[in-house]
Each structure stands twice: as structure tokens, then as C-alpha cells.
Write a structure and sequence with these properties.
The structure holds three protein chains of three kinds. Chain A is mainly α. Chain A has 19 helices and two strands. In chain A, helix 3 runs antiparallel to helix 4, helix 10 runs parallel beside helix 12 and helix 15 runs antiparallel to helix 16. Classes of the chains: A mainly alpha, B mainly alpha, C mainly alpha.
Chain lengths: 522, 111, 118
């Protein structure tokens, strides 16, 4: 058990990778064995993530050096800087890993019956495992170039999954847009990594943070890194790929892509808080993040109102909710240099933004899965042609109601809890921001009322007389996420105190991250 | 329970309050008209028009929030035109925003 | 801070390559040309990585029978190899998606073949 715990960081990345390459082999023999293998491996990864999370909350940062004599040996003897690829997991990383593991498990169980009629299912599960590897790698790594590699792995697997159902014309277009945007962005990340390496001769994030002086080339690298990660998470005005991509992907993949975008948000925060940290002009960069967040919130939700494709509507909402997370953490970044403001409202704003990440993954994942259930039974995504589906698909409509009330921030659901924290603290920073955020929440409720009315309510239409409820495994997948939402709604204080606040403190405390690698030497 | 400087949010208290309110509403409803039987009384009277045939009575999605959309036309027209769907425009936005952020960082911090 | 790099030629070449690549990606509507532009961008960034490792008068970083003198940095060369391999995979994926788009819509123009907008 102890050995499992020490090696769990690399196991969490290696087991899905191994299963990704075993899946074609076992898939040749039997489809059922492949399904069992995939679900079992993701369940085991979830177990590993939970025991690692418990250890991190008790004992602090977990460092794993690949290939060293002992996993904690970050800096070998007679060396001044770390030389190996090092996975450094602090509370914020394991927070993202918990989200990724849960949503991936729910989405894979859902896809077992969603993709049942498709050919090439073996390749689907292989690519899904590779996407999961990419997400975990991006949040666990402590090395900047390694982050580029895992970013590319996640982008390539994600784009291939988006374009998977090649019989649809728009699927190939969505996948093409995603891979062009990701490739251009990732090359710019590589350029920025090259700039940083050229000056400081290290690639490790902790060692770079130690050596960083905010010179002109560092500013260019910061601009490139911030904008590329903002583009990957879907901030306006770089968000145009999000509706095209999320709408055409298979529903389980849409749910996992949401978490993949949030892994890019994690990378943005890692760069701003830990890599640059105390050296940069926090007020300016904080306001850049806040402006990105505010514009995302407003334009995202107003563009969602006229949409008639249900998944495109939900994709615009994903853009809008990312704005909330950027707003909360941006306020925290802007006041990072001011200890009094940080203690009064900065920390709470950041906690609100980070709590919103896990809430958003749960309810947006659930909403995408319900939209996929509608598509599976009805055959199209057009809200203009749907109507009265709530008569036959009762459980799906209950899950949709839970997700829609959560995203609109209606009490008692968890969306309200995180929005409450964001409103209260951002109001003390600047009242206008909080007022616009509340207005956006109102319009969110309006557009989901539109979607619910158009799809579920109304008299039973004659063309949908023999629509049945969604299949069992899809209901189980949706049920996992709905149970998580209900659990977070009933005890938000528990989640905030035990999971979110350690993540906030890990982001604010750059010194702990650096001394995890450099061994406490200043 | 989440604390904040101006109050707290405790979902358990909220749920108990909501359940009590719903119980009161149910109690008031159960004291209502006892003679009404479901399905026996006539259909509700809707604006003196005959009820529409099947499939035509449902309000479709592009008609909902028509007033909101028309009222904000001046905001929506440029925004919807900006979402062109052409990949080259995505790259233009990317380079443009990088340039703006670089200029902001240089100006605020000094070169 | 970048000590020992003798002349600016390769860096100017990197700037020219990245500039040409972004010009192609922005102005050419044919999707295959856009992918070519991305390939030129990848070449520019790889050239940048290899160039930043060069030290004046340096020799290849191989220890066997090494002549005397300083060696160029080996780490950027490893980064470049990784990036080239990733670019190959991305290029293959993009071209296969263009083939599918052409089969469905009959055109490789990014404006004429788009289905989703607004």
C-alpha cells in the first residue's frame, strides 16, 4: 500500500497509457472484455487519485522524479538544479486530477451504450484513454516542456475524438478547427519555453521560479503563455472554436473536453501564480485575466440565447462559465501583492473561482450527457424540431433540470454556492464586476429555460411517439455526476474547507512549490 | 456551511425551510374544492380560439426570446457577424490579442 | 544573458519564417495551404530551439573521442526532436480531416466549406 502510494503519480499516468495500447489487442478478441478493461482501469485510477489526495492533504507536496534512485530525489548529488523529469503534485494539481478522474469515469460508462452502434469502437476507447493520459499529465507535471508534450497529446487525441463520427459533415470541420488552433497555440508555447530555457538553462517550473527575473524576453514569454492557455480554455475573443467543437463531438467526449479545457486553465494559473509569482506586475496581469473573464461571461451567454442547436448552446455556456473562474482567480491575482486585501477578500475570490471549476465540470458534464441522450433517441440536435420529450424521457429531464438549475446558480445547488463566494468577494474589489456577473447568471437561467421549454415541455408530438428513455449505462453515467452535484449542494462547506482551500493556498504560496523541488534552499 | 463577511450560506437550513413552506402550501391546497374530479370538467378556455391540432401547439425554439433578440439587435448584428466560422479569422484573433497583451505588459512594466 | 551566441543570422531567419507562416495562415483560404503554413511555423520554432543551443566554436555534444573545446547544448536538440515527431502526427491528422471535409462538402476552401457559423 505504501509502495502504491509512493509510485501513484506515475501509475496514474502510466495505467491509462498502458490500457490505451492494450485496448486494440484485447478489442480484437472481444468487445465486452475491452469495455471491462477500460472501465476497470479508470475505476482503479480514481482509487489511486483518492489515496494520493488524502496523502497530500495530510503531508504536503508530493514530488516524484522519474528514473531517480528514490522518487523523492529531485536534485541529485553534486547538482545545483533538478535534472530529471519531475512530477510535482500539490493540492491544486490533485484537485484537477479528482475532477478529471470522476468525469472520465462517468463519460466512459456513458459511452458504453452511446457508441454502441458505431464501428471502430476500439479506436474510440484507445483515443479516450490517450486523452485521459494527456489531462493527467498536464496537471501532474512539474516541468514546462513536459506540459507542452502532454498538451499536444491531449489536443491530438481530443481532435481525433471530435471528428470520430466521420459520417457527419460538421464533425470533420469541428475536429479540423480544433487541431489547427491547438497546433498553432502549442507551437507558441514551445517558443515561450525556448525563450525561458535560453535565459535560465532549466526547464523545471520550480527551478525557473527560483531563477526568474522579469526581463523583456520573460514578458514576451508570459504574453504567449497566457494567451495560448486562454485560447485553449475558451476565453473570448479566442473562443470561436469552442461552439464548433463541442457541438459535434460525441456526448461523452464533450464532457471530457470540458475538463481538458479546465486543465489548460490550471496551466494558466500555474504559469501566473507559480512560475512568475512574486516577480511579475500582479495588478496588470490580474486585470488582464479579469477583463478576459468579464468579456467571456457576457459575450458567451448573450451568444447562447439565439442558438437553436442544443449542444452549441451549452458550449457557449461553457465559455461563459469559464469567465466566472477567470474572474474569481483574476481578482485573487490582482490583490496578491496586498496582504490585507488578500486576507479579506482575495483568498475567498480565488476559492470561489476554484470551487466553480469542480462545480462546472460536474454540471456541464451532466448537461452534455443529457443532450447526448436526447440526440441518441431523437436523431438530431435541433431545438426547433424537438418538443414534448419530457413525457417519455422522465429521468433525463430530471437530470437536465438539476444541471440547468445548478448552472443558473439557483439555491440550493452547488452553482449557487460558488457564485455566492465569487459575488461576495468580487463586490469588495469592484462592485461593477459583481453586478455584471449577477446579470449574466440571470441570462444563463433564461437560456436554459428556453432549452428546457423547447425540448422537454409541451404536448407529446406525433413524430416522437415511440421515443423511449435513455439506455441504462447512459443513465448510470449521468447518475454519477448528478449524485456528485447533489452531494456538493448539501455540504459545500465540507468541500470548500477540505478540497478547495488547500488548492487556493497552494496557488498563493509559491514558496512551498519551489522548496518542494529545491529542497528548502533559498 | 460557507461563511462570508456579510452572511452565510447553509443549504441544510434552506432545504428545511423550503420543505416547511411546501408543506404549508400542500395543506392549503388540500383544503380546496373537494367536488372537482379530474378529466370530468370541461377543457380550460383559451382565448376563444379552437385548440390547435397536434404538433402545432408547441412554441419552437427560434421564437422564444424574440423580443430580447430584436431589442439588442445593435449588439447582436456585429457579434454574430464576427463569429464567421472561418479558421483564418481564428488565427487573426489569436495574433491580435497576443499583440495587445504584449503591448500592455511592456507599457505597464517598462521594457 | 544569452552569452556566447555569435551572430544573429539564424534568429533573423526564425523571425522571417514565423512571419511568413502567420501570413500564410491568415490570408490563404485553401485549407491545405493553411496546413503548409502551420508546417512552416513548426520549422521556424524548431530552428529557434536548435539555434539557442549553439555556442561559438562548439562541437557536437558527444563524449566519445570528443575534440577539446566547449560543446553546444544537447537539451534543445532533444526538445526539437520531440517537437518534430509531434508535428508529424499533427500534420497527418489535419490532412486526413481535410480529406473528409472535401468528401462531404466538395471544396477545400475554408469559407465555402464551413457549415457552422454564428
Amino acid at each position: 500500500m505504501d509502495k502504491l502510494l509512493t509510485h501513484s503519480p506515475i501509475l496514474i499516468i502510466a495505467i491509462p497509457l498502458l490500457v490505451a495500447f492494450l485496448t486494440p489487442l484485447i478489442g480484437r478478441a472481444s468487445g465486452k472484455a475491452r469495455n471491462v478493461l477500460v472501465v476497470a482501469s479508470l475505476a482503479f485510477v480514481e482509487f489511486l487519485v483518492i489515496i494520493l489526495a488524502r496523502d497530500i492533504y495530510l503531508n504536503g507536496i508530493h514530488v516524484y522524479a522519474l528514473g531517480a534512485a528514490s522518487p523523492n530525489l529531485a536534485i541529485p548529488e553534486h547538482f545545483m538544479v533538478p535534472v530529471r523529469i519531475i512530477l510535482e503534485i500539490d493540492a491544486m494539481s490533485i484537485f484537477m486530477a479528482i475532477i478529471a478522474a470522476t468525469v472520465a469515469l462517468a463519460a466512459v460508462i456513458y459511452s458504453l451504450s452511446f457508441m454502441k452502434q458505431e464501428t471502430g469502437q476500439t479506436r474510440f476507447y484507445t483515443l479516450l484513454m490517450l486523452l485521459v493520459v494527456g489531462m493527467f499529465g498536464m496537471v501532474f507535471t512539474g516541468d514546462l516542456f513536459n506540459m507542452f508534450v502532454f498538451l499536444e497529446i491531449a489536443s491530438i487525441a481530443g481532435a481525433a475524438l471530435v471528428a470520430f463520427r466521420t459520417r457527419f459533415a460538421d464533425a470533420a470541420e469541428g475536429g479540423f478547427k480544433y487541431i489547427v488552433i491547438s497546433a498553432a497555440g502549442a507551437l507558441m508555447v514551445l517558443f515561450a519555453v525556448g525563450l525561458l530555457y535560453a535565459q535560465y538553462n532549466v526547464l523545471n517550473i520550480g527551478a525557473l521560479a527560483n531563477a526568474m527575473q522579469f526581463s523583456m524576453l520573460d514578458k514576451i514569454a508570459l504574453a504567449l503563455l497566457i494567451i495560448v492557455f486562454a485560447m485553449k480554455l475558451g476565453a473570448i475573443p479566442l473562443h470561436m472554436w469552442v461552439p464548433d467543437t463541442y457541438a459535434v463531438a460525441p456526448a461523452g467526449v464533450s464532457a471530457i473536453l470540458v475538463v481538458s479545457s479546465q486543465a489548460s486553465m490550471y496551466a494558466l494559473f500555474r504559469v501566473c501564480f507559480t512560475l512568475y509569482g512574486a516577480t511579475l506586475n500582479m495588478y496588470t496581469v490580474g486585470w488582464i485575466v479579469i477583463i478576459l473573464g468579464m468579456v467571456s461571461m457576457f459575450v458567451g451567454v448573450t451568444m447562447a440565447i439565439p442558438q437553436t442547436d442544443i449542444k452549441r448552446l451549452m458550449a457557449f455556456h461553457a465559455v461563459s462559465q469559464s469567465g466566472y473562474m477567470l474572474l474569481g482567480v483574476g481578482v485573487g491575482l490582482a490583490v496578491l501583492g496586498d496582504p490585507h486585501a488578500l486576507a479579506t477578500y482575495g483568498r475567498e475570490a480565488m476559492s470561489g473561482g476554484i470551487f466553480h471549476i469542480i462545480n462546472h465540470a460536474m454540471y456541464k458534464g451532466l448537461l452534455f450527457l443529457t443532450a447526448g441522450a436526447l440526440f441518441y433517441r431523437v436523431g438530431h440536435r435541433d431545438l426547433n424540431r424537438m418538443g414534448g420529450l419530457g413525457h417519455k424521457m422522465k429521468i433525463t429531464s430530471i437530470f437536465f433540470i438539476i444541471g440547468a438549475l445548478s448552472i443558473a446558480g439557483i439555491p440550493p445547488f452547488n452553482g449557487f454556492a460558488s457564485k455566492f463566494m465569487i459575488y461576495e468577494s468580487v463586490y469588495q474589489f469592484n462592485p461593477i464586476l459583481a453586478v455584471i456577473a449577477m446579470l449574466v447568471s440571470l441570462i444563463t437561467l433564461a437560456s436554459f429555460a428556453k432549452a428546457f421549454q423547447a425540448a422537454f415541455t409541451g404536448p407529446q408530438l406525433p413524430e416522437y411517439k415511440d421515443v423511449k428513455e435513455a439506455p441504462k449505462s447512459m443513465l448510470i453515467g449521468m447518475g454519477i455526476l448528478a449524485a456528485a452535484i447533489v452531494f456538493f449542494s448539501i455540504c459545500p462547506g465540507l468541500i470548500v474547507h477540505h478540497i478547495v482551500e488547500p488548492a487556493t493556498d497552494a496557488l498563493i504560496n509559491q514558496g512551498a512549490y519551489v522548496s518542494g523541488i529545491m529542497g528548502g534552499t533559498p | 456551511m460557507i461563511e462570508s463577511p456579510s452572511g452565510f450560506w447553509g443549504p441544510v437550513v434552506w432545504i428545511i425551510t423550503a420543505v416547511v413552506a411546501l408543506l404549508i402550501a400542500y395543506f392549503i391546497r388540500s383544503r380546496g374544492e373537494k367536488a372537482h374530479k379530474k378529466g370530468v370538467q370541461s377543457e380550460t378556455f383559451l382565448m376563444a380560439n379552437p385548440s390547435l391540432p397536434e404538433g402545432k401547439a408547441h412554441v419552437r425554439a427560434h421564437n422564444i426570446y424574440w423580443g430580447f433578440f430584436e431589442g439588442l439587435r445593435k449588439y447582436y448584428d456585429p457579434t454574430i457577424t464576427a463569429h464567421t466560422g472561418i479558421v483564418n479569422d481564428y488565427i487573426i484573433w489569436f495574433i491580435g490579442v497576443i499583440a495587445i497583451v504584449m503591448i500592455i505588459l511592456f507599457v505597464s512594466g517598462g521594457i | 544573458m544569452i552569452g556566447g551566441i555569435p551572430f544573429n543570422g539564424p534568429f533573423v531567419a526564425v523571425a522571417v519564417l514565423v512571419g511568413i507562416a502567420f501570413y500564410i495562415m491568415v490570408s490563404k483560404r485553401n485549407m491545405i495551404k493553411l496546413v503548409m503554413g502551420l508546417s512552416v511555423l513548426a520549422s521556424g520554432v524548431n530552428l529557434f530551439l536548435v539555434t539557442l543551443g549553439y555556442r561559438e566554436g562548439g562541437v557536437a555534444p558527444i563524449y566519445t573521442n570528443a575534440p577539446a573545446g566547449i560543446m553546444v547544448l544537447p537539451v534543445p536538440q532533444a526538445l526539437t526532436l520531440t517537437s518534430i515527431v509531434i508535428a508529424v502526427a499533427v500534420l497527418a491528422l489535419m490532412l486526413s480531416m481535410i480529406v473528409h471535409i472535401y468528401r462531404h462538402t466538395g471544396s477545400t476552401d475554408s469559407e465555402k466549406s464551413r457549415i457552422m457559423k454564428g
